[in-house]
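Justification of computing resources. Each target in the renewal requires a structure prediction run like the one illustrated here; the chain below, 87 residues long, is used simply to show the kind of job we budget for.
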Amino acid sequence: MPNIRSAKKRVRSNARKADVNTLVRSSMRTAIKNVEKTVVSGNKDEAANKLNIALQRIDKACTSGLVHKNKAARLKSRLTKAVNSMN
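Resulting structure tokens:
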């Protein structure tokens, strides 16, 4: 346990930031899974809507530094390719 006042504040702020990071990362992963599930089911309109949500969540995670920009680009590319290849 820290003794210095500023270190105590850092512990509190780091805990808050960790909660936010967990939320952003898990919502991104959920959105990705939703797109993949919809692609398998074959509903192209719904897949396109869920793709937009997933792209927003991936961008949010990338700008906050949770996901590297190359990983974000790779995820977006794979999801877009999967939705576009639907019949």
